[in-house]
């Protein structure tokens, strides 16, 4: 007998899939693709060889993420008919009696996720790596070109004051969880708060747009944007700034999160991405330095929360997490330096 897959109640989920997902032929097999503290992702293979993806919340977090599943499904369903490449949405189950938490199903998309240089070097040529960088920017411009009201997402979030709300949210989280003082986080928060650029018309904001949150095909073109769980409405420049944070040039001291594929030959430089976005979107990118600094600061707050949870033992490790502390300090210092360079 096959070993049970954690997070899937096969006796209930399989009949639900057979009844609600068009084209799926039982029986099916389940394989965990991505686990951890974010939403869990499983590949579902049916008896006819068809491939699907099932997404559910992390184990033990039903209430906190019940809305997220419906939100993600709603977003990719709305974007399906647009120029934004997403995996086709096939079904949503909000009945927690089926699997202990809501989940949704989408079509499996073949492709590559470029999380590190070894993967990118193996699957793409230098020319295809340039294509990947350019396609990443072009797709982001397509996301920002979608009229939220026209696709039924006009009420996804408040449209105005995006940066102010983000500053309040992340600084409050930092204040509530910090284990020690980080002066650069406090100082940069004040500088960011008092220098927020005027926000233009609100767009869909992915919220975590980067190379390894997208799938690319064998030519390097983006064929699916993934991880829509914190998508909302707001200032599109925040997506561009965060992309600059995650994108690593060959002469950078290091990657924001320690690992990056983009230092390889062929990938465009960060400045080229910004210039291409300006060309494709028609937007003024003169304040990109502010949004990049905000991205570094926000990431410092997020990583500090991870450090606190590890230090408190809530993530199961008693040692080996100290590098998160140094990472917070480095990100906050980079935010301060980036902001100073824009004024």
UniProtKB/TrEMBL annotation:
One protein family per Pfam: APH
SUPFAM superfamilies with a match to the protein in the record: Protein kinase-like (PK-like)
Gene Ontology molecular function: transferase activity
Residues of the Aminoglycoside phosphotransferase domain: 32-273
Database matches in Gene3D superfamilies: 3.90.1200.10, Phosphorylase Kinase, domain 1
UniProt-listed CDD domains: ACAD10_11_N-like
Keywords: Transferase
PANTHER family the record matches: HAD FAMILY PHOSPHATASE, HYDROLASE, PUTATIVE (AFU_ORTHOLOGUE AFUA_1G12880)-RELATED
Protein name according to UniProt: Acyl-CoA dehydrogenase, putative phosphotransferase
Organism annotation: uncultured Acidimicrobiales bacterium
